Amino acid sequence: MALPPALRGSVTPQELEMIASQQVIEIIPLIAMEKTAFISGAYGPLRPPNKSKIPLWMAVNLKQKKKCHIVPPRWLNVEFLQGRLDLENSDSRAFCELPFRFAEIAKVIIDIASDDLENPDQIRSLLKDLREARQAKCRAGLGQIDHSELSLSNLGSMEINEIRPVFVQSMNILSKLARSNTLEA
Question: So which domain of life are we looking at (predicted)?
């Protein structure tokens, strides 16, 4: 897929998913495996039915081979996401707290292990609504940028990546305007 020119200088969503795949999650292995060393670290041993913590990339690989069940993170459920959506809609300025890579991790888990989730369609819908609510706040916030102070706490990596091109251009323009104002004074 060709990206628009404004997004070519930033990280692609697929690259962000690859970065997020380093996050450690829990699985319930269906096979036994000794401790195995990888470049990123040693993981295991895997002993069914005990839970194990491994990187998301390894969990995806095992899940695709039907050798584990992925235990969803505590935040990837209907109740938690509905609560966060309610917070986003009730507070017009602040972003509710979510894991930094929530969008990427949720997408990978929903795509690969939706059978390990309760109500995956409702979770997908809530994530979409949450994303839209947060994007609306981002757009509203970009319209009120002040070059002297900016706070964007609780934004996720995907959200930062999406607003980066517009934000950089906006800050460049604001800086030029501030400089021209000081030169005229």
Answer: Eukaryota
